[in-house]
Amino acid sequence: MSRKRAVVSLGHESLGYTTGAQKDAVRVTARALADLVEADYQLTITHSNGPQVSMIHKAMSELRRVYSDYTPAPMCVCSAMSQGYVGYDIQNALRSELLSRGISKPVSTILTQVTVDPYDEAFYEPDKVIGRYMEKEDAEAEIKKGNYVREYPDNKFRRVVAAPKPIDIVEIESIRALADAEQVVIACGGGGIPVIEQQHILKGASAVIEKDSIAGKLAAELRSDVLIILTSVDCVYRNFGKENQTPIASMTVAEAREAIRRGEFEAGTMLPKIEAAIAYLEKVEDGRVLITSIEKGKDAVKGKAGTVITSTPAH
What we know:
It contains nine helices and 17 strands. By secondary structure, the chain is of the alpha/beta class.
């Protein structure tokens, strides 16, 4: 394969938060992704789905409330729905952008399942908020079904689900085949559809998988040359949000681990991205990770922006 292989992880900012905003956002995102294709990268793209899966969950729950003969959609089904419609918008926007530049290249979305351990500790302490605000009566009904809820002020409640660690990407061989054919692939959207393997059957799990976690695993499985994490900031910062914050141009895995030990990265925002970078570089020692904003992606691959993380000091 002549082209460099890259896994690109897209955050919420690349997609928007509503169906209309998403269509506008992916046009901008498509231009940034097309820049990478023009720079001779084969792309495998994964993306967040927090707002999208939450919207779907709310809609399906309300449908059940209005029409009693409808059954609620489980989280795994909501995740599959979000993968489909987010992938649909990305692949069409990117295909159009590539064709406008004279590049004819297939762009495909793979509905991707990811196995998780039913005994993962996350299932005993769910912490990912999902869906609508509920009244106490609805919350009690959820609890009776074995689900977890979190209480908010004014006697409001929301459901919470687990975020277990990914084990295996079920469709990895299909993803690899398209990547080897130098096509653009969209896969593992929203972290993948969480499933539990029971003999030969895959059973959907009431959970979500961290998008950054699966991005690191996907990049490792594909032996990618680079993992590009596009987020809301131009680079990783030391003392982020404080008066003395300073940009970090580069880090080694050892330096990243030490920064984690000192508590420099916020849980739920930058910390999962740094952990994903470490997990990938442990498997692909000659790889590199770029963390930057979508606006700076083109410059970052040229070494002019963002934060680069490598196994050993960059030369």
